[in-house]
C-alpha cells in the first residue's frame, strides 16, 4: 500500500483499486497500534484513532482535498500518484 503522506507519527496510505469495500474515496491511516479508514470528507469509515490524531488527519484532508482526490482517482485507476505535503 503506497504512502500518501506522513506527519506527527501518522502514516496515511492509499490502496490501488480500493473503491469496493467502503464505496467512497478514503485513505488508510496508521498511528502506533491504531488503524482507521477515513473518507476524504472526514467520515470515520472503519477502525479508530485517538481524538487528537483524528482531528489532525481531518485538518490535513481539508487542506489538501484537491490533491488527495487526484491521488485517489489515480489509485483507483491503478496509476501512480504523487505524495501530498504533510501537515506542518
Provide a quick synopsis of the model.
The chain is of the alpha+beta class and 88 residues long. 28% of the residues lie in helices and 28% in strands.
Explain what you see.
The protein has 2 helices and 5 strands, in the order E-E-E-E-E-H-H. It has 88 residues and is α+β, with helices and mostly antiparallel strands. The protein has one domain. Strands 1-2-3-4-5 form a 5-stranded antiparallel sheet, covered by helices on one side. The protein is globular and about 30 Å long.
Overview features:
five-stranded antiparallel sheet; alpha+beta; 88 residues; 2 helices
Strand content: 25-35%
Estimate nothing, just give the exact number of structural domains.
1
Mean pLDDT: 93
What low-confidence regions span 5 or more consecutive residues with pLDDT below 50?
A: none
Largest sheet: 5 strands, antiparallel
| Alpha plus pi helix count | 2
Structural class of the secondary structure composition? alpha+beta
- Name the shape in a single word: globular
Q: Percentage of helical residues?
A: 25-40%
Order of helices and strands: EEEEEHH
Number of strands: 5
Strand line-up in the sheet with most strands: 1-2-3-4-5
Over all CA atoms, what is the radius of gyration? 12 Å
Cα distance, first to last residue? 23 Å
Amino acid at each position: 500500500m503506497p504512502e500518501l503522506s506522513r506527519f506527527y507519527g501518522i502514516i496515511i496510505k492509499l490502496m490501488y483499486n480500493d473503491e469496493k469495500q467502503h464505496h467512497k474515496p478514503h485513505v488508510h491511516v496508521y498511528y502506533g497500534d491504531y488503524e482507521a479508514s477515513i473518507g476524504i470528507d472526514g467520515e470515520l469509515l472503519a477502525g479508530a484513532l485517538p481524538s487528537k490524531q483524528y482531528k489532525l488527519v481531518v485538518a490535513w484532508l481539508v487542506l489538501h482535498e484537491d490533491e488527495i482526490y487526484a491521488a485517489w482517482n489515480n489509485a483507483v485507476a491503478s496509476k501512480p500518484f504523487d505524495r501530498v505535503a504533510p501537515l506542518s
